[in-house]
């Protein structure tokens, strides 16, 4: 990835895709010839906010603008004369309160002022699917039928053209992929790349979704990051690995070799903060109606959902909301691949730092298999559950003042309004299951 602004003018690039993410994490863009890039750098590319639908504007409001952040520009390896860049939404030259990238920048800048950098890795899971002649969506690989198909070599080998094309493109663009695997569901894959600064990782996750879809289309397939595209198969998560670092010494502030879990007291406070606000946090990291089909699903074909349902912390144990895979970091498992990464990571950092500020007590990691507990046992042991639906997550968010304080009342009220509208629309649709169950009663 090239980083200096002058590089783009000296490069073969002829066009720049100036993009931003809307509230839902969807990339929006304009194509700008390089000959007009200077004017866009000065005044921004204009967008009618109401046409986007999720940035808090009506049809009467003035245009929003986006100034590209040219420290994050990427030439496309399959079209080297075209570059992608991302920027922040502005109104009259000032940050717009519905710009989620600005929210993450604000949170990370507040940390930097305290000498702290958040470093994050995201595990990007997705399905490759195709459309049948009758319009049904099915997994792309019709030979991938085993109940426990995870890591199968023959499946991985059948998709080598797609996978190597995707990896080569990502690596040529500066995204350091270190492994790819076939996941738990048929035609489900995961791409792992080296962790980095929280904002850089959010930018890269946004681009990765765009790029993987683009490569899949060239293969005649669809790459979907929908959390639960098939009711009987494992959902697609976006597990987060997080640590905090000292900007002056380069030391991992979460690492403590004297602790049984390898975590510092700061890390334990942070984790306690995440658990304290987990119900509200879920509205950001599992942001769609479909997200809760993943979090609340019964056992999948493989025998496990691999999704958390309880607000608990485990050792190296994937049945909990938080897993401690090793010293100096933790994994947060509720986030799914439909997330707006800027908003999800900003909310995670805000929740964790509230735990540090309040010095919330350490919660001992459990080795218990949470999937083995019945609902009665969970209730009897006073174990808190994650919200089971979007409306319950939104209720929890509305009741938790932390995020209004961090992101502003206007943003939270707007987010709640958009998401409640999504929930209402879902309930106004009559599903085939309702016809099947109720038509002849």
From TrEMBL:
Pfam families: Gln-synt_C. It comes from the Bacteria. The keyword DNA damage does not apply. Residues 11-94 form the GS beta-grasp domain. Its cofactor is Mg(2+). The keyword Magnesium applies. Gene3D superfamilies: Glutamine synthetase, N-terminal domain, Glutamine synthetase/guanido kinase, catalytic domain. GO terms for biological process: glutamine biosynthetic process. Residues 100-441 form the GS catalytic domain. Keywords: ATP-binding, Ligase, Magnesium, Nucleotide-binding. Its EC number is 6.3.1.2. InterPro entries: Gln_synt_N, Gln_synt_N_sf, Gln_synth/guanido_kin_cat_dom, Gln_synth_cat_dom, Gln_synth_gly_rich_site, Glutamine_synthetase_typeIII. GO terms for molecular function: ATP binding; glutamine synthetase activity. Belongs to the glutamine synthetase family. This is Glutamine synthetase, type III. It comes from Sulfobacillus acidophilus (strain ATCC 700253 / DSM 10332 / NAL).
């Amino acid at each position: 990835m090239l980083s200096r602004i002058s590089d783009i003018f000296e490069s073969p690039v002829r066009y720049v895709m100036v993009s931003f993410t809307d509230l839902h994490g969807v990339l929006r863009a304009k194509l700008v010839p390089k000959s007009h890039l200077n004017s866009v750098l000065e005044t921004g590319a204009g967008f009618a906010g109401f046409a986007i639908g999720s940035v808090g504007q009506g049809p009467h409001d003035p245009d929003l603008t986006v100034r590209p952040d040219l420290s994050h520009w990427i030439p496309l390896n399959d079209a080297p004369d075209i570059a992608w860049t991302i920027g922040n939404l502005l109104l009259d030259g000032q940050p717009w309160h519905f710009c989620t990238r600005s929210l993450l920048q604000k949170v990370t800048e507040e940390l930097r002022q305290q000498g702290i950098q958040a470093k994050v890795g995201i595990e990007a899971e997705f399905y490759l699917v195709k459309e049948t002649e009758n319009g049904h969506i099915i997994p792309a690989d019709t030979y991938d039928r085993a109940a426990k198909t995870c890591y199968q070599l023959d499946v991985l080998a059948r998709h080598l053209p797609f996978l190597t094309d995707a990896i080569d493109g990502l690596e040529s663009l500066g995204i350091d992929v270190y492994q790819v695997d076939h996941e738990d569901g048929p035609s489900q894959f995961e791409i792992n790349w080296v962790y980095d600064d929280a904002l850089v990782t959010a930018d890269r996750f946004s681009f990765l979704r765009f790029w993987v879809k683009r490569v899949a289309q060239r293969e005649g397939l669809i790459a979907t990051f929908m959390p639960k595209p098939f009711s009987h198969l494992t959902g697609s998560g976006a597990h987060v690995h997080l640590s905090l670092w000292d900007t002056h010494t380069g030391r991992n502030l979460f690492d403590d070799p004297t602790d049984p879990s390898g975590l510092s007291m700061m890390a334990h406070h942070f984790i306690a903060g995440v658990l304290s606000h987990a119900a509200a946090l879920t509205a950001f990291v599992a942001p769609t109606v479909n997200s809760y089909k993943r979090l609340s699903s019964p056992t999948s074909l493989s025998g496990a959902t691999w999704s958390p349902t309880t607000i608990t912390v485990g050792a190296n144990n994937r049945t909990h909301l938080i897993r401690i895979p090793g010293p100096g970091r933790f994994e947060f498992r509720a986030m799914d691949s439909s997330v707006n990464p800027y908003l999800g990571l900003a909310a995670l950092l805000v929740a964790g730092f509230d735990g540090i500020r309040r010095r919330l007590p350490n919660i001992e990691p459990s080795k218990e298999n949470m999937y083995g507990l019945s609902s009665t046992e969970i209730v009897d042991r006073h174990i808190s559950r994650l919200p089971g639906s979007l409306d319950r997550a939104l209720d929890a968010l509305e009741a938790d003042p932390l995020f209004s304080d961090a992101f502003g009342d206007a943003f939270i009220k707007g987010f709640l309004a958009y998401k409640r509208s999504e929930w209402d629309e879902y309930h106004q649709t009559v599903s085939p299951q309702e016809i099947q169950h109720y038509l002849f009663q």
